[in-house]
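Below is a concrete protein record.
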Amino acid sequence: MDLRYSEEYEAFRAEVRAFLDENWTAEDRAAAGEEQLIGGIRKPNERETEFRLKAIERGYLYRDVPRAYGGSEQPFDPLKSAIIREEFKRARAPREMIGQGPSMLVPTLLEHGTEEQKQRFIRDTILGRILWCQGYSEPNAGSDLASLRTRAELVGDYWVVNGQKIWTSNAREADWMFCLVRTEPDKPKHEGISYLLIEMNSPGIEVRPLRQMTGEADFSEVFFENVRVPKENLVGERGKGWQVSRSTLKAERAFIGGTDFVRKTFDGLAMLAQAVELRGQPASKDPVVRDMLVRLESRLLAAEYHSLRLLTMQAKGQDPGLAGMVTKLDTSQLMYDLTLAGMNILGDRGALANGEMTAPAMGMFVHAYMWSFGMLIGGGTANIQRNIIAERGLGLPRDPATKR
């Protein structure tokens, strides 16, 4: 594999840098806060939105979203997209909005939504004017999502929704939810599920925060009692929501499986090893710690090169298939191992809460370690991922104990 960019792509990189130098000043870069390692959504400020609109006009952001819906509609070129990410990150410039709306719902609407739904939601979602949460998991429907029981009955021009969702990220901040509901309860569990868009300020919705071990409440329970949802908020066909949800889940795994967060975490781990003393010297000088760092970075490089391999496949018009699922499985495990290494370096200081330590990256690792457990589950548990890869990718026999 040739990991160098051609002269054509290096010229494109220079073009992107010139745009950033002109439109995202040194003052902007100094004022830009550190990107959150994990979690949290917020609406952008006016300066960020102004910059994103210019970047969209130049074709640098939302390249896969048609102009009719607020994107830049550029030819598919994964190498240019990679260069844009690299340069925007270097300049600490606003990139594409993260979160469940831009990263998961927008690809789903582009594939399954009506023209009215695309016009109504996509532009405001990619600009952060509408924030979204995901209504999938239920108390008795986690990894076996198709067992969900939240029901919706069509009464006149409205779906009437009753039930409960749990582990809903950012439900308190979200304006809307994309939600799976059961509309045909007499059909097999993978059938009779529909995909609805529900406004979170609708009468009959109650959000109860769930306190995490981090001390925060990023997740919530959401209760629906006779919530009326306009029938035009159905995405795809009635009873075909499972097929629609697979598009969302595919986008979620790609979102969770990105290597940017993992690289940032490794860089923080290296800083931590330099800042923390171990037996009278920086931990980074300890041979055991150095060996651990080398092993972790080798795994990170393998994950990054695997991502480049996927880009190469896409550039050739090939479908990466289950190789993309391997990325999610690998990076979520690596994220856990990186943060665990940070906690081991911290030792007893790892028991302190975020904000109680002043050395670089210390508080970050306490928080990130607790968050990393969730990354192993998000988008499908690691064991579920392994089963899918084994059965569909390697042709191994199905688990006979699993009801399907």
